[in-house]
Design brief:
Blueprint: E1 2-13, E2 17-35, E3 39-46, H1 59-71, E4 77-84, H2 94-109, H3 116-127, H4 131-138, E5 141-147, E6 150-156, E7 162-166, H5 173-178, H6 186-203, H7 210-213, H8 228-239, E8 244-246, E9 253-255, E10 267-271, E11 279-280
Parallel strand pairs: 3-4
Antiparallel strand pairs: 1-2, 1-11, 2-4, 2-5, 5-6, 7-9, 7-10, 8-9
Helix pairs in contact: 1-2, 2-3, 2-4, 3-4
Length: about 280
């Protein structure tokens, strides 16, 4: 039995929607699993091929094991092949894609149904926060939050051109989060609440509002010291009228535009919004 899935990159926050908003992007990893008589074999090509572990600690494998436990069935062994296109530690949801892709791949391999809602719940528990995994599961523009009963998400359609500017350096999500203060001014929180509400409207057919709607006061400025060139690029693009934000925890910059050049040495990807999320290939 062989199974194949594709899973999209994602951009969280989008400026004011800190830890809530996610956007699925048309930059995708391909994952293939083949049942073998016993054991575990892993082949990785592309992004992170020289960095990720090739054993049971690989994030995709851990997600697959969680899915096997949830479904109550597992193969005798499997060979995992990952073709990675999502840059690692750049704020494009590579870990969420690995988790969501692993869950979907496991269900396909053992031919057991796993709904997207169940997949989202499992992925959010593994990842620890729901914003990126919601976009990777459902596609489109997602709003995620936590309830006592568990993580929740809603998906909305969005069709906008997107360009991401990926620097050659990494910034870990943990390191970026450590720069955030425990408290913020009430005025900043109120401003972000309004901008986040405006961003929902902007993504639903009012692109003329995107520049105002992507203004942020809660996290990007505090994280600037960890990614000064990224922060400068955001400010430069915004000064010319281009809606630009730090993607997730950075250091990638996302702009709602096309035909924009990036700094020397940066990878530039002109993308669409992935409307489907993780799916069999």
């Amino acid at each position: 039995m062989t199974a194949t899935v594709v899973v999209p990159a994602s951009s969280a926050n989008l400026g004011p929607g800190f830890d809530a908003f996610g956007l699925a992007l048309s930059l995708r990893d391909d994952l293939v699993a083949e049942e073998i008589p016993s054991g575990l074999e892993i082949v990785v090509t592309g992004e992170g091929a020289d960095e990720v572990p090739l054993d049971g600690t690989h994030v995709v494998v851990q997600a697959m094991e969680a899915a096997f436990d949830y479904l109550g069935v597992r193969p005798t062994g499997f060979r995992l092949t990952c073709t990675n296109r999502i840059p690692h530690a750049r704020g494009l949801g590579s870990s969420s894609a690995a988790i969501v892709g692993g869950l979907a791949l496991a269900a396909e391999l053992v031919q057991q149904p796993l709904s997207k809602d169940a997949m989202f719940t499992l992925a959010a528990r593994i990842e620890g926060h729901p914003d990126n995994v919601a976009a990777a599961v459902y596609g489109g523009f997602t709003i995620a939050w936590n309830e006592p009963a568990g993580p929740q998400a809603v998906r909305l359609d969005a069709e906008l051109p997107v360009t991401v500017f990926v620097p050659p350096v990494q910034v870990s999500t943990t390191a970026a989060r450590r720069l955030l203060p425990a408290q913020v001014p009430h005025a900043d929180a109120a401003s972000n609440a309004g901008r986040a509400a405006l961003l929902v409207a902007a993504l639903q057919g009012r692109p003329d509002l995107l520049l105002a709607a992507t203004e942020d006061a809660l996290h990007q400025g505090y994280r600037a010291e960890a990614m000064p060139i990224s922060y400068e690029l955001v400010q430069e693009l915004r000064s010319t009228g281009i809606p630009a934000v730090i993607s997730g925890a950075g250091p990638t910059v996302l702009a709602f535009a096309r035909g924009v050049e990036g700094p020397d040495g940066w990878a530039v990807h002109e993308l669409d919004i992935d409307a489907v999320g993780v799916r069999p290939a």
